[in-house]
Amino acid sequence: MADPQLETKEEKERQPTLGTKIFRNQLITLIFILLAMVLFLGITTSTFLTATNIFNVLRAFSWIAIAAFGQSMVIIGGGIDLSSGSNMAFCGIVAAALLVAGYSVTLAVVIALVVGAAIGFLNGFMVSRTYLPPFIATLGMMSIIRGFCYGLTNGWPIRGLPQSFLFLGQTDISFLAWKIPLPAIIMVVFAILSFILLEKTKLGYHVYAVGGNEYAASLSGISCGRVKLVVFTLSGLFAGLGGILMTSRLGVAAPTAASGYELDIIAAAVIGGVSLNGGEGSVWGALIGAALMQILRNALVLLGFPAYWQPSAIGAVIIGAVMIDQYRKRRF
After folding, report:
1. Distances from the Cα of 197 to the Cα of 39, 73, 191, 283, angstroms
2. Which of 210, 237, 260, 272 pairs as cysteine with 285 (C-beta 3.0–4.6 A)?
3. Cα dist. 42→36, 181, 313 in Å?
4. If you ran DSSP here, which 8-state letter would residue 308 be given?
């Protein structure tokens, strides 16, 4: 007969410690890493914790984070969108071209957002209706849209944008003693909306179900094709919004804008705990992932590292984040 005291002791040993509970939660782990980076930079540099630098960092990753929210939905749903960077540049060019032609800011922005959503819709259509792999469909779209960027501008940037448009990316909103960048406020608003969509609606439940097991989801009556169509459309819309904010901040729409941003957007989602296998992740993780990448870039500059090494550092962080996530899944 088993000793009850021995069984109780074994049960206590199997109970997870506080550190284990924290490590199991990807979001809490990311928050600890973020706080550790902030503390380290606050101690080792004299400028990181200044209000000017903090708000510049917020502004700099806001459009990446917004696009990463849409990308997260796609990846959670079992896909991937490689066209988001080109989409950002193209929507910025569309808005700029309309503004230079004399259209109002509101109309130019709305049309650019519709164009971004349409690009996402085409991606979703190719994936859900013609059954192309998401990687191939969006890779082709990435090249097509980048070609449109160069073709419509003849390779030249569009300048002379009105101040009423530059307001979106360059304005700071006064709050108590701080001046918070408007793009950062828009980023937080869309983070909340994305969270509600994924966590509090039937569509969000279906996205997780399709990404987790598409066959089981289809057997339960979920229209997997419709879910993919929606998430790719939202990804295009969010990328378009990010492109408009980026263009407004830069004050110029260049065909080379957002080159390689699709990798930063995907990296923000992956670092934030969105599983490339689908069915797992959150927009808050993507937000923190985007913040971590921008803080790392800012840290390298403040600590005097050559800018040429930044891509290597970001790549190492991506690999490390995925390795930790895989270890966490195997171990716990």
Report:
1. 33, 10, 10, 10
2. 272
3. 10, 21, 20
4. G
Alpha helices (runs of H) in the chain, residue ranges in sequence order: 4-14, 18-24, 26-44, 51-76, 84-100, 105-128, 134-153, 163-170, 182-200, 202-212, 214-219, 224-250, 261-271, 283-302, 310-331
Residue 89 falls inside a structural domain: yes
310-331 vs 283-302: helix axis angle to the nearest 10? Answer: 140
Give the H or E element holding residue 183.
helix 182-200
Q: Would residue 23 count as lying in a domain?
A: no
Count Cβ atoms below 10 Å from residue 16 Cβ, excluding itself: 11
Helix (H, G, I), strand (E, B) or coil at 275: coil
Q: Which range of residues forms the domain containing residue 183?
A: 58-258+277-282
* Both tokens assigned to 60: 């700099």
**22-36, 78-92, 280-294: which range is least confident on average?**
22-36
Q: Is residue 302 part of a domain?
A: no
Q: With CA atoms as reference, report the closest residue to 93 among 256, 261, 238.
A: 256
The CA-atom distances, in angstroms, between 326 and each of 71, 194, 270, 331 are 20, 25, 12, 9
Residues shown for the chain: 332
Q: Please give the pLDDT value at position 22.
A: 54
pLDDT per position as a tens digit, 237-278: 999 999 999 999 999 999 999 998 998 999 899 888 898 888
